[in-house]
UniProtKB/TrEMBL annotation:
PTM: Transiently phosphorylated on a His residue during the reaction cycle. Phosphorylation strongly increases the affinity for substrates and increases the rate of nicotinate D-ribonucleotide production. Dephosphorylation regenerates the low-affinity form of the enzyme, leading to product release.
Entry protein name: Nicotinate phosphoribosyltransferase
The protein's role, per its UniProt record: Catalyzes the first step in the biosynthesis of NAD from nicotinic acid, the ATP-dependent synthesis of beta-nicotinate D-ribonucleotide from nicotinate and 5-phospho-D-ribose 1-phosphate.
NCBIfam families, A to Z: NAPRTase_put, PRK09243.1-3, PRK12484.1
Domain of life: Bacteria
InterPro entries to which the protein is assigned, alphabetical: Aldolase_TIM, N/Namide_PRibTrfase, NAPRTase_N, Nic_PRibTrfase-Fam, Nic_PRibTrfase_pncB, Nicotinate_pribotase-like_C
Family: Belongs to the NAPRTase family.
A Pfam family that the UniProt record links to this protein: NAPRTase
Biological pathway: Cofactor biosynthesis; NAD(+) biosynthesis; nicotinate D-ribonucleotide from nicotinate: step 1/1
Catalysis performed (reactions): 5-phospho-alpha-D-ribose 1-diphosphate + nicotinate + ATP + H2O = nicotinate beta-D-ribonucleotide + ADP + phosphate + diphosphate
Gene: pncB2_2
Swiss-Prot/TrEMBL keywords: Glycosyltransferase, Ligase, Phosphoprotein, Pyridine nucleotide biosynthesis, Transferase
Length: 459
């Protein structure tokens, strides 16, 4: 298995304003310790929960963040930055602290998913890329988790999303996020190699079309892939193709070649699956599976299984890795503390809670989640703390968490969801309580802000 992350990435993969703010902080000699937290303001429509993902990529990014001579030259050419400021970036390394929810953790609005504590220039610089990585993998993992719940553990689920993903990185990270959430594997070869994800492949319509007849295409593919022959049977007439597969499979068995499955990719998948199952069973081929694909999502998977469609596996792509019904989160990365003082935004509809925070989760006697409390970091509370310290002085406290471990954690989290939240339809709102001490700190921050404003006004 290859390393999960690249060894280097240009720090210029960010917004210009991250650098203009760094220059302004530099000019004002401001670089005290700051804490920023990433959180989601509200759940997207139709969602009962979200699943945290992308932390590993964030940690790789922070570990390797540095400026090359070419990066500094480009910044100089922009004309926005002073020579003294650019010289301060030479030898730059992230030296801050990171606390976060482990990947695969289920979370809800107002709960910090990740906190970065560092000199304010460093903490500011990383905002855009950190948000980019956490946001994308979280929306995909959250969508994939719903597909997993719809599958009820009864079926194989394969990520089919690369070809319509919004770029190569999205294709790779969606494979990772969906596997984290409980998918069986991916069709993307590099994702399999990089992340240790099982890979699955079938065949293309073009292969069938390139042959003079379907029978020849099926036979030649089965002989080429004797240990992995999944035959695509809907290029022309699905049921007629199933009859050809049945006749071919019986003959191939005598040679020790076994057709693994047939794949359906169009039409009424439930109806075709029933007819194809009857054809295969009638030929004594009950061990040949039926795999379905074609614009699937959690709703179609649920409906097909609830109709007892005899489908053994699903390839889920576009609707998942674009999170088609809710393609973005109302998320933010906001300053919560600077120079030892609480800071909070008070904008209408976008107010934030000040201070470094922790979330505590309580469980009922049946093992299901029953409520969370957001407190100040260091405050004790009933339940299990969700945020864990994972990086100090720019270095990890432990080896990278194996994706298989995060996947197991995600499965445990989904199993602990209250029944109402496991459903695809919106259920009851999960209770997230803000501690009295945090509410009081918000009042203190507001009072300090009012005093500072009055002092500035009288100056």
């Amino acid at each position: 298995m290859m390393s999960e992350g690249a060894t280097s990435e240009s720090p210029l993969l960010t917004d210009l304003y991250e650098f203009t703010m760094m220059q302004a902080y530099f000019d004002s000699a401001m670089n005290d310790t700051a804490s920023f937290e990433f959180f989601v303001r509200k759940l997207p429509p139709g969602r009962n929960f979200l699943m945290a993902a992308g932390l590993e990529q964030v940690l790789v990014y922070l570990e390797n963040l540095t400026f090359s001579a070419a990066d500094l030259s480009l910044l100089k050419q922009s004309g926005h930055f002073s020579g003294a400021f650019l010289r301060s970036l030479e030898g730059f390394r992230f030296c801050g602290e990171v606390a976060a929810m482990p990947e695969g953790t289920v979370f809800f609005p107002d709960e910090p998913i990740l906190r970065i504590t560092a000199p304010i220039r460093e903490a500011q610089l990383v905002e855009s890329r950190v948000m980019n990585l956490l946001h994308y993998e979280t929306i995909v993992a959250s969508k994939a988790a719903r597909v997993v719940l719809a599958g009820q553990g009864r079926t194989t689920l394969v990520d089919f999303g690369l070809r319509r993903a919004h770029g190569a990185e999205a294709g790779l990270l969606s494979a990772r996020a969906s596997y984290l959430a409980g998918f069986t594997g991916t069709a993307t070869l590099l994702a399999g190699a990089r992340f240790g994800i099982p890979t699955f492949g079938t065949m293309a319509h073009s292969y069938v079309q390139a042959h003079s007849d379907e029978q020849s295409a099926f036979e030649s593919f089965a002989r080429s892939q004797p240990d992995n022959a999944t035959l695509l049977i809907d290029t022309y007439d699905t049921e007629a193709a199933a009859q050809k597969v049945a006749a071919l499979a019986v003959g191939l068995r005598a040679e020790g070649i076994f057709v693994k499955a047939v794949r359906l990719d169009s039409g009424d998948l439930g109806d075709h699956a029933r007819k194809v199952r009857a054809i295969l069973d009638g030929a004594g081929l009950r061990d040949i599976g039926i795999f379905a694909s074609g614009n699937l999502d959690e709703y179609r998977v649920r409906d097909l299984l609830s109709q007892d469609a005899p489908i053994d596996g699903f390839g889920v792509g576009t609707r998942m890795n674009t999170s088609a019904d809710s393609p973005y989160l109302d998320c933010a990365y906001k300053l919560t503390e600077y120079a030892g003082l609480p800071r909070r935004k008070r904008s209408e509809g976008k107010a934030t809670w000040p201070g470094r925070k922790q979330s505590w989760r309580r469980y009922s006697s049946d093992g299901n989640m029953c409520g969370d409390t957001v407190t100040l970091d260091g405050e004790t509370c009933e339940g299990t703390p969700l945020m864990q310290l994972c990086m100090v002085q720019g270095r990890r406290l432990a080896a990278p968490v194996a994706l298989s471990t995060s996947r197991g954690h995600a499965a445990h989290e989904l199993a602990a969801l209250p029944p109402a939240l496991r459903k695809l339809e919106p259920g009851s709102t999960f209770p997230v309580t803000i501690s009295p001490s945090l509410i009081e700190l918000a009042r203190t921050a507001d009072a300090l802000g009012a005093l500072a404003g009055a002092a500035a006004g009288s100056a």
